[in-house]
């Protein structure tokens, strides 16, 4: 009851005429977060949440907090690095759940141009969907549940939003399609609009995590952050012994934080994401809590190129969790080939095929490169020093689940 009271206050549900159902899938998802991951390994709640995000009526639409930060419309000091090159909206549903909507910006068969820097790349809705499936297959469970949906931009965004700025950026194109664009200081013009056909538009919906008031999170710079300029390099790009420095710095000097960074690098290498400048953690679980793998829309841009620099945490630190290595080795076996498992998993999404065949096959190729890097480390330092034994960790007790308290 106390948790529900906090949620009602957070949602401004002061009237008893508006019930907050305890069995709502998004609420059950929030209550299921533990120090092991965002959801249990076998979670019927996640599948129900995915169905609800696909089917439930949209009752409101608004800009996300980072876009509001660009407009000076909110105090968004806890939001990671606002950017105006993307277009995303917060959609609320009939049961008061909400999801981040990212519309289709690039067709599946299109590759990111070679001349694009990673920090000006498009965000791809199908990359968000595929990243969730891959994260679940790897048994990380650190990406919020994400699903594809066809949105009627007129009925489900324009007609339900109360934001006058959002209303003002809708227009009808010469092809009679309904379009809209982001409102921000740069890259937000009609040339960068997204358009329905004439009203329907593909997009990804990612379930929101509990609010920062209910479940505080930290945003932490990635030690292997990239330079966000057209020239210049970070220290890790020029110093092969960079990891020695990282290992001496709290919190990477002990615990499993560095191993979690390596997990994140492996995940990003598989999807081709070079844009992991920060990571987030729930403060509830302390220094050894899992890292959230948020904002994966810049993945799956180029299937023809393997950006091995993403693997720097693995190749420079030469350490990996045993559970991660065992899962990767399993997915390299012919009967459990990663591309086959991903293909089958993605067929569950209504926007299937989510990835083109070259992107699926690239996963197998990149997996072999990861295993090759691990073998090189083992040959150099020995398995005992490279492979960290985390297979005996007990399941998290119920008391370690996220408490929705202020």
Automatic annotation (TrEMBL):
Q: Does the keyword ATP-binding apply?
A: yes
This protein's GO cellular component annotations are:
Golgi apparatus
Which of UniProt's keywords are assigned here?
ATP-binding, Disulfide bond, Glycoprotein, Golgi apparatus, Kinase, Manganese, Metal-binding, Nucleotide-binding, Transferase
The main location class comes to Golgi
Q: What is the lineage of its organism?
A: Eukaryota, Metazoa, Chordata, Craniata, Vertebrata
Q: Which domain of life is it from?
A: Eukaryota
Which species is listed as the source?
A: Aramus guarauna (Limpkin)
The GO terms describing molecular function are:
ATP binding; kinase activity; metal ion binding; protein serine/threonine kinase activator activity
Q: Where in the cell is it found?
A: Golgi apparatus
The entry's protein name is FA20A Pseudokinase
Binding annotation for ATP: 102, 206-209, 280, 295
Per its UniProt record, what Pfam families does this chain match? Fam20C
Its family?
Answer: Belongs to the FAM20 family.
């Amino acid at each position: 009851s106390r948790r529900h009271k906090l949620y009602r206050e957070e949602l401004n549900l002061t009237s008893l005429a508006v019930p907050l159902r305890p069995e709502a899938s998004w609420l059950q998802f929030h209550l299921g977060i533990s120090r092991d991951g965002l959801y249990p390994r076998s979670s019927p709640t996640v599948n129900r949440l995915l169905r609800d995000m696909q089917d439930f009526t949209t009752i409101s639409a608004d800009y996300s907090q980072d876009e509001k930060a660009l407009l000076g419309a909110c105090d968004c000091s806890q939001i990671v690095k606002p950017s105006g090159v993307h277009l995303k909206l917060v959609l609320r549903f009939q049961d008061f759940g909400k999801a981040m909507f990212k519309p289709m910006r690039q067709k599946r068969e299109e590759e990111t141009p070679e001349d694009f820097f990673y920090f000006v790349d498009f965000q791809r809705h199908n990359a968000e969907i595929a990243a969730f499936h891959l994260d679940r297959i790897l048994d990380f469970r650190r990406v919020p549940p994400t699903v594809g949906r066809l949105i009627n931009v007129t009925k489900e965004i324009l007609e339900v939003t109360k934001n006058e700025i959002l209303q003002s950026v809708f227009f009808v194109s010469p092809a009679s399609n309904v379009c809209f664009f982001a409102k921000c200081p740069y890259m937000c013009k009609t040339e960068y609009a997204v358009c329905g056909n004439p009203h329907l538009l593909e997009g990804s919906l990612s379930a929101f995590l509990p609010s920062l008031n209910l479940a505080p999170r930290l945003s932490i710079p990635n030690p292997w952050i990239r330079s966000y300029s057209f020239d210049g390099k970070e220290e890790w790009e020029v110093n092969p012994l960079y990891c020695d420095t990282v290992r001496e710095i709290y919190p990477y000097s002990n615990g499993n934080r560095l191993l979690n960074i390596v997990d994140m690098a492996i995940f990003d290498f598989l999807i081709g994401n070079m844009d992991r400048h920060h990571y987030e953690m729930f403060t509830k679980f302390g220094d050894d809590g899992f890292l959230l793998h948020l904002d994966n829309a810049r993945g799956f841009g180029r299937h023809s190129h393997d950006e091995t620099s993403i693997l720097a945490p693995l190749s420079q630190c030469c350490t990996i969790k045993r559970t991660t290595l065992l899962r990767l080795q399993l997915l390299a076996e012919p009967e459990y080939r990663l591309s086959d498992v991903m293909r089958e998993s993605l067929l569950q999404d209504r926007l299937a095929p989510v990835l083109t065949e070259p992107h699926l096959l690239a996963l197998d190729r990149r997996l072999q490169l990861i295993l090759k890097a691990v073998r090189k480390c083992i040959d150099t330092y020995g398995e005992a020093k490279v492979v960290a034994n985390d297979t005996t960790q007990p399941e998290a007790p119920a008391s370690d689940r996220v408490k929705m308290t202020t």
